[in-house]
Amino acid sequence: MNRTLAIIGAIVLIGGVILSNSYFIVDQTKQTLVLRFGEPVREILQPGLQFKIPFIEETVFYERRALDVDPPRQQVILSDQKRLDVDSYARYTITDPLEFFRSVRTEREAASRLSNIINSSLRRVLGNQTLLQVLSDGRVSIMSQIKEIVNESATRYGLEIIEVRIRRADYPDATRENVYNRMISEREREAAQFRAEGSEQAQKIRADADKQRTIVIAEAQKQAETLRGEGDGQAIKIYADAFGQDPDFFAFYRSMQAYRTAMSEGDTTLVLNPDSDFFRFFNSMDGAPAAD
User: Fold this and answer.
1) Is the domain defined by 67-176 classed in CATH 3.20.20.450?
2) pTM of the entire predicted model
3) Whole-number pLDDT of residue 121
4) Where are the domains positioned within the chain?
5) Angle, nearest 10°, between helix axes 139-154 and 107-126?
6) Which H or E run includes 120?
7) Which of 23, 13, 15 is nearest to 50 (CA)?
8) Is residue 249 classed exposed, middle or buried when 0-12, 13-18 and 19+ CB atoms within 10 A define those classes?
9) What is the pLDDT confidence band of residue 78, given thresholds at 50, 70 and 90?
């Protein structure tokens, strides 16, 4: 009895193992190849429950979704001899799992081959472009060209390139340092030019200001001399008119002014003849000379 149960148990176990190896489930994100003794015999693209010959056939699953590939950063020489360190990436799908299995087998190998193809295509296309074209709106057209070239090579691996993009494009460190130094030199040259032009303008402004100052002063002096002359003329005329109206009073007034001016200082000493005309009003109120 126990032996019979053991046999039945063994049969059930073997049957379970055989049954578990007789079917497989294809997820909607996967596509499958069925291999018989290592060789593909059929491909399954639809999701669902599928069957195979146990222990003879095996399955290989591949992604239906888009996969990423990140090629190593590389240096590219543009047509204007500018050097750029280009960091790119691409996305692809496995469109023919059978061809993919025969040519590269694994996604890792596919990424390696695509990296070489992408970098080669980048050098080929960017080598015919200038830096201005790479940095302008023409970049979209450039990436389309690269995508087409990569797709031509990727088709034989059962792949389709969805997009190729340049993540970053920078000057190499040495070139960046040279550009930075050149920018500094250019700015210093412009600053020196601006300072020279400013100094020249300042000299012109100062010269013009000095000229205007000289002209204004000369005009002012001329006008002052003219006014002074006119004033002196008017003063002489007034004095003459006054002298003409009362010559005796005018003579007396002028003599009094002369006495005040000459004798205003206490230590003034005059050595004159008492009969001098200067003292005539000391001798007589009318200024007549003293009688002999």
Assistant:
1) no
2) 0.57
3) 92
4) 2-63, 67-176, 230-292
5) 140
6) helix 107-126
7) 23
8) exposed
9) confident
- 100 confidence band (pLDDT: 50, 70, 90): very high
Q: How far apart are CA 123 and CA 39, in angstroms?
A: 38
Specify whether the CB–CB gap between 81 and 37 falls below 8 A.
no
Dihedral sign computed on CA atoms, order 76, 82, 87, 91: negative
pLDDT at residue 181 is higher than 90: no
Give the residues across from 32 on adjacent strands: 44, 61
Whether the CB-CB separation of 214 and 206 falls below 8 Å is answered with no
pLDDT at 17 over 60: no
Distance from C-alpha of 48 to C-alpha of 231, rounded to nearest angstrom: 125
State yes or no: pLDDT of 171 exceeds 90: no
Instruction: Identify which of 38, 44, 29, 164 has the alpha carbon closest to the alpha carbon of residue 105.
Output: 38
